[in-house]
Amino acid sequence: MTFDNINIRQIVSAAISEDAIIVDVRSEDRFRSGHIPMAINLPVERVEQGQVNFPKNRVLIVYCDTGGSSIRAARLLSDMGYRVINCVGGLKNYKASLTK
Length: 100
Description:
With about 100 residues, this protein is an alpha/beta fold. The protein has a single domain (about 5-95), classed as Oxidized Rhodanese, domain 1. The protein is about 30% helix and about 20% strand. It has four helices and five strands; from the N terminus they run E-H-E-H-E-H-E-H-E. A five-stranded parallel beta sheet has the order 1-5-4-2-3, sandwiched between helices. The radius of gyration is 12 Å and the shape is globular.
């Protein structure tokens, strides 16, 4: 399957317009150190193990620190039947405030 890509700076507006779930695929420690508001943490390792319980009718927007793990997660989630949007550039390019 395939997925769409957006710039991470568009993540919040895309989440609102798509009624999407924002998924941070970084480790739990990295998530706790600061994440995008409204994000849910699901480390990429759990995605790889198939530990995903999101409703199939919701769009998932995935991000990580630099973009590599989110691409991996986006491919896996897409293969599982989810509609996925990947954030290019990762959290290092996100300029708004983070939630802790």
